[in-house]
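Q: Give me the 3D complex with flavin mononucleotide.
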Amino acid sequence: MERLSDAKEVGSQFLKNANVGICVVADSEKADTWIEDSSIALTYLNLMATAENIGSCWVQMHLRRDSEGNDAEKNVREILNLDENYRIVGIMALGVPAIKRKGKTIEDLDFDKVKKID
Ligand SMILES: Cc1cc2nc3c(=O)[nH]c(=O)nc-3n(C[C@H](O)[C@H](O)[C@H](O)COP(=O)(O)O)c2cc1C
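A: Here is the predicted complex, encoded as structure tokens.
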């Protein structure tokens, strides 16, 4: 987990203190939709963790780099001993939330970002 937390430069350090990390691995030789498939899997992990009162955070690896400029996904493949056809969009970190955040209300949402097409 410590090595995985250093696989990219920013936004991954909490992985080493997480109770569990689930690395979503997709075989790009079996599905050309590996980005979409992995993103759906990661999102469901978020939803399922929340339903079980478990804290979760997506740790993006695809298209990210470590502090020396190396490809983060390649680093993860090396740590987990995976062949090149296995692609890693991200890792889901799971743990006990340190703080409980208040949910957002409908009024908090920025509807300027939503375009209505008539
Ligand atoms: C595609 C995607 C990639 C993310 N990658 C990271 C990441 O690498 N590190 C991280 O700390 N959080 C990551 N997050 C979590 C976001 O930073 C943020 O905490 C989460 O989306 C909640 O955002 P909100 O506070 O605007 O609701 C990612 C989220 C998504 C959807």
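A quick observation: The pocket of flavin mononucleotide is lined by residues 11-12, 57-60 (CB under 6 Å).
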